[in-house]
Every structure is written in structure tokens, then in C-alpha cells.
Write a structure and sequence with these properties.
The protein has 13 helices and nine strands. The protein has about 300 residues and is an alpha/beta fold. It has one domain: Alpha-Beta Complex (Inosine-uridine Nucleoside N-ribohydrolase, Chain A). Bound molecules: beta-D-ribofuranose (BDR) and calcium ion.
Length: about 300
């Protein structure tokens, strides 16, 4: 049997982040979650860090460390998405508040040293603003060659969701996104073009509710209040990439992040059909939504 692949998840829970964590923790044969890092994004770090612990504990993954990272973007003033995810970041979540001790290590120190110690072994799944990754790359540019791959939820070749041009994670920290895309690290990008194809519609939520576990119940309660029913499962696709790549079609592209033009700030300019040596990312364009949603349901059914 093959060994599970070691991953580090960098997130800002956030409702779709929480479902992404549930999927990762339900997949121990394929994924070894070394740590969950948190960053300011959907809500402040004082919420995203304890939210990650709440979900980790619910999933029975207490031995996985949760680490707080950067509390603000590289340059621009913080923006949040509390209108979608609720003031706490996990709207309608009935879980108790996080208990226990906060891990004193900074997420960036952990990431830099863990990846340095195991070159080309560890995949990072980044589903919030890219501040922690950019800070790591500033401290240690070699990280770009040491990391096995970075799977990102962020950006869009087409329309944005915060402005007509920009997607939330790249809009929240465009300078960080630019540093990451210019680093030379191997990147897979799941932007809105593909994540909007996979939605938590009412019929699917009913099926998940019938699973009857506290995890399934929590997922459904939160997703019912995630913008509105039928919300895109954005971050879940980035974990899905590591488990069911056959559900997703990606293409080599050249991606450039806009940091100058105030109207376009945070936009990802995606050039398709480029020669292999010009590509700096593989970008997702097509998802097999029914297949992936059945798979996600099966994995959520593993929780009792
Ligand atoms: C992204 O922004 C956040 O609100 C979600 O958690 C996701 O990471 C979608 O644009
Ligand atoms: Ca997120």
C-alpha cells in the first residue's frame, strides 16, 4: 500500500474551509495532515485559528497541530468576508468554542522549517489569502524549490466575486498572491472558473443531513447559511485535487496578479495555451461536479 502524502493546510475558516478540513481528515489513507495553519481572511485571525481547532476537534483529529500565522495582509488594509461566513466565520455553527492551549509556534516558522527538512515531499494546500506563503518565500526563497507543490484556491480567469475582476483570496492580499505566483514554485490553481461549478444544492444537503453524524449535521447547518443554499464549495476542490484529480481538468497557463491598477487590484490575468516554459501554474477550468459531490458525500459518511 502507498504511504499517505504529507500535506500542510493553510486556511481561514470560513465555511468552505471547514468542509475542506472535514474532507482532508476523512482521508487518512491518502493524506497525512501534518498541520493546519491559519491566516486572516474571511474573518480575523482571532476567529480563524480557534475555528480551525473547533473543526479539527469535531473531526477527531486532535493530534494535528493548528498554528496561527499572519494577522494582516502584506501591504493593503484588511478586508473580510463576514457577510458570507458570518461574524465568527462559521455562521450557524453549533459547536462549542475552542478549548485547550494555543500552539505558540508561528505558522510561517513551522512551514519554512518543516518544508526545508523534507525537500520536495510536502504539498501545501492554501485556501485563504496567501500571506503566510508569501512571508515564507520572503524569508526563504528556496522554499519555492523545496515545496513539492502548492494547491491554491484563489483567483479567476473570468469574473471575480468581490469586484467584477477579483476573487476574494487574491483581492484580500494581492501582493502576497503576486509573490507566490512569481516564485517559481509548482502551483495548481483552483479559481472561480472551476469552483463555481461545484455547489451545495438543497438536494445534496438533504443527502448529507441523512448521514446523521455530528460532522454531517455541522456541515449542513453551516452550508445552509453560506451566502445562500447552492453556494460554491470553493476550498473543498483544493483538497479534492489530491484525492480525485480525475474530477478536474487543469491546463498549463501564465498567471499574473494585478497589484497596481486600483480598479483591477487582485485580478489574476490568466493566459491560456502558453508554451510549457512560460507556464507558472496549472489552472482548473472544468469539474465533474456530480462525481465529486458523490465522492464528498461518501467521505463525510465516514464520520460516525
Ligand atoms: C474564497 O474566499 C473565501 O470567502 C472562501 O473561503 C474561499 O477561500 C472564495 O472566493
Ligand atoms: Ca477560504
Amino acid at each position: 500500500m502507498t504511504q499517505p502524502q504529507p500535506i500542510i493546510i493553510d486556511c481561514d475558516p470560513g465555511i468552505d474551509d471547514a468542509i475542506a478540513l472535514m474532507l482532508a481528515f476523512a482521508s487518512p489513507d491518502e493524506l497525512e495532515v501534518l498541520a493546519v495553519m491559519t491566516v486572516a481572511g474571511n474573518v480575523g485571525l482571532h476567529h480563524t485559528e480557534p475555528n480551525a481547532r473547533r473543526i479539527r476537534d469535531l473531526c477527531g483529529a486532535k493530534s494535528v497541530p493548528v498554528l496561527a500565522g499572519c494577522p494582516r495582509p502584506v501591504l493593503r488594509a484588511p478586508v473580510d468576508a463576514g457577510d458570507i461566513h458570518g461574524e465568527s466565520g462559521l455562521e450557524n455553527c453549533e459547536l462549542p468554542l475552542a478549548r485547550g492551549v494555543v500552539d505558540p509556534r508561528h505558522a510561517v516558522d513551522y512551514l519554512r522549517e518543516t518544508v526545508r527538512a523534507r525537500p520536495r515531499e510536502i504539498t501545501v494546500v492554501a485556501v485563504g489569502p496567501l500571506t503566510n506563503l508569501a512571508t515564507t518565500l520572503i524569508q526563504r526563497p528556496e522554499f519555492a524549490r523545496e515545496v513539492r507543490r502548492i494547491v491554491i484556491m484563489g483567483g479567476a480567469a473570468g469574473d471575480g466575486n468581490v469586484t467584477p475582476h477579483a476573487e476574494f483570496n487574491f483581492f484580500a492580499d494581492p501582493h502576497a498572491a503576486r509573490i507566490v505566483f512569481e516564485s517559481g514554485a509548482p502551483i495548481s490553481m483552483y479559481g472561480l472558473d472551476i469552483t463555481r461549478q461545484v455547489r451545495a444544492e438543497a438536494a445534496w444537503l438533504k443527502r448529507v443531513e441523512r448521514l446523521g453524524s455530528p460532522v454531517a449535521h455541522t456541515a449542513v447547518r453551516m452550508l445552509e447559511h453560506y451566502g445562500s443554499v447552492g453556494g460554491a464549495l470553493h476550498d473543498v476542490l483544493a483538497i479534492g485535487d489530491l484525492l480525485r484529480q480525475d474530477c478536474f481538468t487543469l491546463e498549463p497557463c501564465r498567471v499574473r496578479i494585478e497589484t497596481e491598477d486600483p480598479e483591477m487590484i487582485g485580478k489574476s490575468h490568466v493566459e491560456r495555451g502558453v508554451a510549457p516554459d512560460r507556464a507558472n501554474a496549472r489552472v482548473g477550468f472544468k469539474a465533474d461536479a456530480p462525481e465529486f459531490l458523490s465522492f464528498l458525500e461518501e467521505r463525510l459518511a465516514r464520520y460516525s
